């Protein structure tokens, strides 16, 4: 196994791998090995199994970084043996047996719930279900606040929905209990109540928590600061 970890960036709901582009560019410029897989966004259990399988195929240690719902995914997928560190960016640090809905419900004050759209899966889908997305006209303010409007509008019409079932899946494991973790709180978050982030990080006993005056998409609004935290974690686990 190589000594330096591969940094694997996991996107959240209502976004895709491109949401990590500013951070990915900076990490590549530093000579880091970086991978940014697409998350199916179908269920917490299924998505975590998919990312864990992806991670386990990497030859060497892995530093997993998760944004938003991606934080829940790395909480479970991070149980892979070659994961040496976790970084949460405005993320859900679930406990074992806890769901997204339960953690969000502790601090429900956010603008997201009132601006969601529920769309049944297409009739040809293998299994019935419902996709959840953010109202396109509300997306810039609720999800992409602090991002230039022309960029936010593109993100709004290209968002990757999350299956409603993902909100109810309970995490079967919490990798932060055995793996060092770092957290970033987006203090100006209107998608997740920042107290959800603070609570999860404090409960996890993370090595360091950084508060940024940033919106939910901190990796687009404050990429240099996000990279600094990733680099701190990278140095600690290398």
Automatic annotation (TrEMBL):
What does the record list as coiled-coil region(s)? none
Protein name per the record: Pimeloyl-ACP methyl ester carboxylesterase
Start and end residues of each AB hydrolase-1 domain = 7-229
The family database entries (SUPFAM superfamilies) matched by this protein are listed as:
alpha/beta-Hydrolases
Could you give a GO molecular-function term held by this entry? catalytic activity
Gene3D superfamilies per the UniProt record, alphabetical: alpha/beta hydrolase
* InterPro entries reported in the protein's UniProt record: AB_hydrolase_1, AB_hydrolase_fold, Sec-Metab_Biosynth_Hydrolase
């Amino acid at each position: 196994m190589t000594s330096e970890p591969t940094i694997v960036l996991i996107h959240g709901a209502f976004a895709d791998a491109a949401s990590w582009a500013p951070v990915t560019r900076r990490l590549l410029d530093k000579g880091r090995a970086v991978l940014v897989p697409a998350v199916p966004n179908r269920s917490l259990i299924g998505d975590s199994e998919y990312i864990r399988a992806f991670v386990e195929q990497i030859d060497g240690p892995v530093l997993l970084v998760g944004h938003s719902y991606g934080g829940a995914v790395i909480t479970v997928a991070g149980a892979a043996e070659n994961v040496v560190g976790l970084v949460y960016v405005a993320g859900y640090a679930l406990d074992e047996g806890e769901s997204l809905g339960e953690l969000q419900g502790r601090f429900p004050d956010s603008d997201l719930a009132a601006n969601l759209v529920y769309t049944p899966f297409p009739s040809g889908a293998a299994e019935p279900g419902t996709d959840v997305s953010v109202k396109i006209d509300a997306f810039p303010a609720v999800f992409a606040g602090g991002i230039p409007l022309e960029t936010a509008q593109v993100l709004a019409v290209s968002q990757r929905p999350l299956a409603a079932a993902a909100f109810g899946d309970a995490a079967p494991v919490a990798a932060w209990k055995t793996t060092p973790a770092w957290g970033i709180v987006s203090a100006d978050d209107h998608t997740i109540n920042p107290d959800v982030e603070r609570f999860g990080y404090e409960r996890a006993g993370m090595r360091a928590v950084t508060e940024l005056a940033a919106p939910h998409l901190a990796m687009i609004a404050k990429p240099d600061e996000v990279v600094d935290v990733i680099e701190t974690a990278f140095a600690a686990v290398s």
